[in-house]
């Protein structure tokens, strides 16, 4: 079984994000970039399925600038067999990315596509769902367990107040939640080996996909700075302030 894993290059989760002075977006100059954490979980799950003998090949795919090769090399070091970069310097919206991933799905014909549930930069949580709709495949989102059985996959989903297990016919789309697994670190020998694994670069035009945007970002703003708190000396003072100053009780 072939698994396609979608990995996104995002601002590292440890970085304190700065908004550009003209509010047009986030300042990416000299900022550490990494693989989206939910995509790391997606790669890990694919590698575990290969280790169990369920998967035979893992293809990592990313849509993004040339530099996204770094995240693909990380996926290769973690256990993917080859990688595909759909190269575009443009800021693409989710639908354009889903269309490009659909074109790669058509080309590669994977049985399972694993994506993160959400990219931590734009928090869209929609690419997997859009890809499922475009490809007509079943979808299991927010997965906390994935079990392939023959031509079907059981996906346990984290939903409000509990877990739901769905049974999908392959080929299918799965998006990963936080508790699906704990991703491994790439070992130095595997990082070296990854440099020799195949990485193909494609352009959106070669895939016949128009990436014209249907969404325009109007403004990006940092949250309002929080004013400093105060310390009160007693519960009575606290109640007095809540009642008479904050007027919340
Ligand atoms: P989003 O819908 O943007 O929150 O992203 C959800 C998931 O879709 C990510 O965790 C990735 O697996 C995938 N994805 C989003 N954007 C890209 C991209 N540019 N390249 C590859 N995969 C992506």
From TrEMBL:
<dbReference type="GO" id="GO:0009055">
    <property type="term" value="F:electron transfer activity"/>
</dbReference>
<comment type="function">
    <text>The electron transfer flavoprotein serves as a specific electron acceptor for other dehydrogenases. It transfers the electrons to the main respiratory chain via ETF-ubiquinone oxidoreductase (ETF dehydrogenase).</text>
</comment>
<comment type="subunit">
    <text>Heterodimer of an alpha and a beta subunit.</text>
</comment>
<dbReference type="GO" id="GO:0046395">
    <property type="term" value="P:carboxylic acid catabolic process"/>
</dbReference>
<dbReference type="InterPro" id="IPR012255">
    <property type="entry name" value="ETF_b"/>
</dbReference>
<keyword id="KW-0249">Electron transport</keyword>
<dbReference type="InterPro" id="IPR014729">
    <property type="entry name" value="Rossmann-like_a/b/a_fold"/>
</dbReference>
<keyword id="KW-0813">Transport</keyword>
<protein>
    <recommendedName>
        <fullName>Electron transfer flavoprotein subunit beta</fullName>
    </recommendedName>
</protein>
<dbReference type="InterPro" id="IPR014730">
    <property type="entry name" value="ETF_a/b_N"/>
</dbReference>
<comment type="similarity">
    <text>Belongs to the ETF beta-subunit/FixA family.</text>
</comment>
<dbReference type="Pfam" id="PF01012">
    <property type="entry name" value="ETF"/>
</dbReference>
<feature type="domain" description="Electron transfer flavoprotein alpha/beta-subunit N-terminal">
    <location>
        <begin position="23"/>
        <end position="211"/>
    </location>
</feature>
<dbReference type="InterPro" id="IPR033948">
    <property type="entry name" value="ETF_beta_N"/>
</dbReference>
<dbReference type="InterPro" id="IPR000049">
    <property type="entry name" value="ET-Flavoprotein_bsu_CS"/>
</dbReference>
């Amino acid at each position: 079984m072939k698994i396609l894993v979608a990995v996104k290059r995002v601002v590292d989760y440890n970085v304190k994000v700065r908004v550009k002075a003209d509010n047009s977006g986030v300042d990416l100059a000299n900022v550490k970039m990494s693989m989206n954490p939910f995509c790391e979980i997606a790669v890990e799950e694919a590698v575990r399925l290969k280790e169990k003998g369920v998967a035979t090949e893992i293809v990592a795919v990313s849509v993004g600038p040339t530099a996204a090769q770094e995240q693909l090399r990380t996926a290769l070091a973690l256990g993917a067999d080859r990688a595909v970069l759909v190269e575009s310097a443009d800021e693409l919206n989710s639908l354009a990315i889903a269309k490009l991933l659909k074109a790669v799905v058509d080309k590669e014909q994977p049985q399972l596509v694993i994506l993160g549930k959400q990219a931590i930069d734009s928090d869209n949580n929609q690419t997997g769902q859009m890809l499922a709709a475009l490809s007509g495949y079943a979808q299991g989102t927010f997965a906390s367990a994935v079990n392939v059985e023959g031509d079907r996959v059981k996906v346990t989903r984290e939903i409000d107040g509990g877990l739901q297990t769905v049974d999908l016919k392959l080929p299918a789309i799965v998006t990963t939640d936080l508790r699906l697994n704990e991703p491994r670190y790439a070992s130095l020998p595997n990082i070296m080996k990854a440099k020799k694994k195949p990485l193909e670069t494609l352009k959106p035009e070669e895939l016949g996909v128009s990436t014209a945007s249907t969404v325009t970002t109007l403004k990006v703003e940092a949250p309002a700075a929080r004013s400093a708190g105060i310390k009160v000396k007693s519960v009575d003072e606290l109640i007095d302030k809540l009642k008479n100053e904050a007027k919340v009780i």
